[in-house]
Amino acid sequence: MPHPAPRPIPETTDLLTAELVVDMAAPVAPAISPDGRLVAYGVVANNGRDGRPHSSVWVAATDGSAAPRRLTDGTARDAAPKWAPDSAFLCFTSDREERGTAQLQRILPDGSEDIAKPESMTRWRGGICDHYPLADGRTVALLAEDEPTAEDERRAAEGDDAKVWGRHLPVSRLRLLDLATGVVRTVDSLGDRHVAEVTQRPDGGPLAVLSWATPELDPGVTTARLHLVTPETGAVQDLGPVGFEARSPVWWNHQGEWHLAHLAVTPGHLVGALAVIDTVPPATGQTVEQRNLTVGMSACPTELVQVADGPPLALFADGLDTALYRLDPQSLRFHRLSRAPGTLAGLTASHSGETVAVLMGTAREPKNVHAGVTGGPLLRLSDTSPELRRIRWGVQERLSYQASDGLQLDGLLVLPAGRTRDEGPFPLVTMVHGGPYFRHADEFTLNAVDCGQWLATAGYAVFLPNPRGGSGHGHEFAAVVTGAVGGDEWTDVLAGIDLLVAEGVADPERLGISGWSHGGFMAAWAIGQTERFKAAMMGAGISDWGMQAGTGEWGIMDAALGGSTGWNGPGPHVHDRNSPISYASRIRTPVLILHGEEDTNVPLGQAVHFHRALRHFGVEHEFVVYPREGHGLHERAHQLDALRRIRAWYDRWL
């Protein structure tokens, strides 16, 4: 899957500013038309007056014969474009009528106007969460919460809003919209289960519905079940439970027999690599057998895509690269079609499976929409941030090195912009990825959280390690951190730093470490294990795994990572050994702590806990809380603040 040759960089270069970083427009959610002629996609940008991201819907010819055309004006959050089965129109969600409340819109992509006028298809109070046009061309499956009742409105008006835990989050239900009449019918036979995803059998048959017992992530993701729903009658067949973090159900047919596959964590594990799980739904009753189609593979599936006229396609994380695979129906094994550097995302296929579109980029340019023949060269269609070509970026190198126990590892080194290895040593900032089931891929990444190139343009070398626990190297590599976070993954990071010091790239007296989420945990962990780092940044990080198991929204998985909950006795507990807070008295490194005030993934209390310990022991640190933000930073002013504050912190200490 080769890239087109990158455009030459102009001789004159612009200064990279924080505004340029946060105002980059980015393509999202490509959707190829069933006939393979067009691809629709969203473009997200921070250009709204309210300081929050807005998005527009675009469409382009997959063969590049016409320039991309913007269909909506970008003044609202227009998202999730999906095609009618005959490719005649697009459906998407938008909050253009009421900010924060998405409704289903329909638009004709082949109109002559530059900005087309969408037609509103729903006025569902509470909004639409997701949608899926059905094969009959007359019906759209909707995922939506219940509309507020008169009693709900009274309670809201009077502030009578006590929350009963377990019933405090609204359930998304499966509903069917008749496009001709506008009537919405709810599928009541699923009861109060929270519907997470839906997809229809390509021949117009039943819907495969993935549901949870509750919308809470814990225990929701551990209670997932698959169902078949007949759209005409609403009749439901329960296929039984599926694995942890189950997602992406897809249908495929072989010799007249329909299969239903999905992604889930490798069976029998809460922590580990994703796997493709396949079953043949019985005529009645629950599924008898589920088969792991990716067992033993070193690459890890990241996306699974339904193809109407053939077996499914899938993207696999493969080291620093991403590979496109197709399932072989005979052997029930995935066969690689092509491979490209970096992370490919948003894979979408035509009805025949002969044409695909995907988001992909290079080490020097951000992701754009590409399309072409499946397994062949892909043509870039979008060009959302051309202004970035005037920036001189740091050269990004692929690294391969050994862990202390001999395991082969990979990662990336970003050199200071305009500098070579021979000009080292440089101040080095190690940026640890989140997850831990994630990875650094050989691609261009630049935002308020993953800001390696932002630091490289300021003269820093940046190390992006892929320690154990991450994706792209098989299940065992990912699962080894279970109950042992901060163990092998920490020594893996350290081995890479030692290599760069030995090679004269990194100045051992000017080392920094940072990360967000699990990477924030690793930064906090590192400075409790060694005094080698002269500065650290902990973003939305975990300081106490026991507290995280009890208060974070991924509770059961966090308990598996940390090793214990502390609920069965006074200890000592495994999670205490694995928590940075237990080593706060050792810390001498100045720490910048950044956290969103409304973070439910890693609650703010984790940062407050760490801050108080550092204050108690007199450790130099700065604690910054961003109002209204969750686990990431979305408001423009907050993104600008984080970028400037992170760079200033390293400028001060390194």
By CATH, the topology of the domain at 392-653 is Rossmann fold
DSSP strand tally: 36
- Mean pLDDT comes to 94
Rounded radius of gyration (Å): 25 Å
Keywords: Hydrolase, Protease, Serine protease
Protein name: Prolyl oligopeptidase family serine peptidase
GO molecular function, one term: serine-type endopeptidase activity
Organism: Streptomyces broussonetiae
Could you walk me through the main structural features you see in this protein, from its secondary elements to its overall organization?
It is a single chain. The chain has 654 residues and is α+β, with helices and mostly antiparallel strands. It has a domain at 392-653: 3-Layer(aba) Sandwich (Rossmann fold). 16% of the residues lie in helices and 34% in strands. It has twelve helices and 36 strands. The strands form eight sheets. Strands 29-30-32-31-33-34-35-36 form an eight-stranded mixed β-sheet, sandwiched between helices. Strands 1-2-3-4 form a four-stranded antiparallel β-sheet, with no helix packed on it. A four-stranded antiparallel β-sheet has the order 5-6-7-8, with no helix packed on it. The protein is globular and about 70 Å long. Mean pLDDT is 94; it is low at 1-12. Keywords: Hydrolase, Protease, Serine protease. It holds the Pfam family Peptidase_S9. It comes from Streptomyces broussonetiae. Residues 453-654 form the Peptidase S9 prolyl oligopeptidase catalytic domain. One of its GO terms (molecular function) is serine-type endopeptidase activity.
